[in-house]
Amino acid sequence: QVQLAESGGGLVQAGGSLRLSCVASGNMFRIVSMGWYRQAPGKQRELVATINAGGGRDYADSVKGRCTVSRDNAKNSVNLQLNSLKADDTGTYYCNVRGYLDPKNWDDFWGQGTQVTVSS
Question: E strands of the chain, at which residues?
């Protein structure tokens, strides 16, 4: 069973920065990508940033230029650094891992979520 342990988040002032971390544990044949999604109240969950096994990164337009996603393959961990925080960054942030449990079957795994609140 794959488990994701998230850390970071909390109450942050507008203009400030946050750093989220996530460590994946459990038996996984191969990790395809790791990253972060977020969900604001009354809205759908949306991509923030992901990074694949080769280091390729994908960012939401709303965070480009102020966000960095990084991963440590040896530790199965992924980090998110988000700067110049805005009120619109408020939401629950979820760690995501897409991976294969065996050579044929892949799945998405999610953390429990960590709340980020940006105060003005």
Answer: 3-7, 10-13, 18-25, 30-39, 46-52, 57-59, 67-72, 77-82, 91-100, 106-110, 114-119
Q: Which ranges of 1-120 would DSSP assign to H, the alpha helix?
A: none
Q: Provide the 8-state DSSP code for 115.
A: E
User: For each of the chain's 120 residues, which pLDDT tens digit applies?
Assistant: 899 999 999 999 999 999 999 999 998 899 999 999 999 999 999 999 999 999 999 999 999 999 999 999 889 999 999 999 999 999 999 999 999 999 999 999 999 999 999 998
